[in-house]
Structure formats: C-alpha cells, structure tokens
Amino acid sequence: MKKWKQKAIIQKTISYLPLSQMINFFFQKYVTKGVNLSDEYFYDRLGHARDHINSYRRYSNKLIPISCLEIGTGWYPIVPVSLFLLGADKIYSVDISFLTSKERVKTTLKKFIECNNQEQLKNYIDYNKERFNAIISILDEYEKLTFDEVLQKLNLNYLIEDARNLSLPENSIDLINSNNTFEHIYPEILKPILKDFKRVVKKNDGVMSHFIDMSDHFAHFDKSINIYNFLKFSDKEWKRIDNSIQPQNRIRIYDYKQIYFELDIPISEESSRKGNLDELRSVFLADKFKNFPLEEIAKSHCHFISNMKAIV
Question: Where do the structural domains in the chain lie, given as residue ranges?
Fold first, then answer.
C-alpha cells in the first residue's frame, strides 16, 4: 500500500478519537517527522512574513502594521514573532484548537536567534533591535516565566474560537494574513471566515495577504504520487479519503477568485506558480475538473493581496 494511503487511513482513524489533534501531533512527530521545525519550514514561513510585510507597506503606505491577525498559525508562530520583531503591538492568532506550547514557542525563538547569528534574519525582516533584545531576554528567563507571560511579552494573543465570528471589533486590524491555511478550509466555511475578515480589517488602509497551497499534501509525504493526485477522485470518493485532522478542499485558483468576487473582496495583486502540465496530464481528472483550462487547474500555489481601501 502506498505511503499516502497509509497516512490517510491513520489520520482518518485518529480524527474520530478524543484529543485527535494531540494524537496527530505525536503521530507526525514520531512517524512522519512532519512537525519538527526544520530549516526549510522556518525559512519558508520567514519568506511569507517578509512578503506579508512588503504587501502591507505597498498598499497601506505605512511601515508597521500595529494590529495583526493570522489564521491557522499552527505549532510554530514564525510569522507572529516576525511581526513582533518588526514592531507590531497587537498580534492575534485564531484557530479552532491550541496547537502550540511553551516548548514550541521556545524552539521558534531560538530559531530566530540562530538565524540572526548566521546573518540571515536581516535579509528577511528589518527588525527592531529593541524587540530582538526582548527575545533574548525572554529566553534568558524562560524557565521562570509562565506560558501566558511569554505570550504577553511577545504581544501575542491566541483566539481559540470560530473564525466566522471573531471576538475582535469592526475596523480594528491593519494586516490579516495566512500561510497555506485556506486549502484546509471547505468553501462553505471559508466564505463566512473571509466575510468576517472583511468586517474586522481596517477599511482605510488595511491589507489582507494570503498564501494558498493547492497541491495534494499527501504528495509532500509520498513522492510516488504527484501534486495533482487528489484531483482524480470524485467528491464522494474524496469524502471517504479526507479527514478532519488535515482536510484538503481541493479547490483551484478560479474557485478562490470566485469566492473573493462574491464577497466583494478585491484581489489587488496576485501571483501563482504555473505548476506542471505534464504531471497534470498524467492524472485522469474527475469530472468536476474537466471543464476548466488545464493551465488554471495546474496552478499549485498562489498569493492574493487585498487592498481594502479599494472597497471604501
């Protein structure tokens, strides 16, 4: 049996168990090795942080987003810490469950120190030196601090709540961002989430910046399949394979554009990876994907930037 099928079966089983997220963490840590903070993952997210910051500056004409919101931060808060280093004062992370821990935040902070020691951090973020020294101080007294105190010193607030109904006030957030999160949210949930993002983002100079990975995530683990493998299944077949631990909605770039259009959220700037047409052609597509141009279906990653001033 292919590795991706084994993983799908295990995660499907785990999804029915109590404490499923915790069990999945240990499964990925000790079996798939998918949750360790690798250099590859760290620098990928650091690159996202750089691009979010540049997007904000380009469309708001301000250097620092004072209030920020990220959805789906996950185990390691790399982008929120990047925004802290930049100078942000209110940094929110919203998710349906609390995935990080005091130890994982410590791992994240130490990675930033290591990155700076290698003279790489300055290539991504023009960070505030006082904020960087604050991280050093936090690590120096880390064992004496409670987890809440660590988060407070980092200006980081976790909102474990339904992102469709955020507890944040209207017109209060400068920058809303996500990093390969939307592909895990089904359209009927993503639409009201984006609608509430539109409510809380500042209308005069707020910016939204979202990275979306439209590839089959099982292909990241099993190199015997390509990133379009999941497009061969009908919705009914995919429902049997998919799981609530790491769901994949399979929607393509044209679907996301339609959602933005329906919600009257501007796509002020977009970029995407063309993907590989030869790999796509090797997959027998399910009927739902056959009526769209292969060039559009093949796009594997995209970045949407929304200048909210455009809707005022």
Answer: 32-311
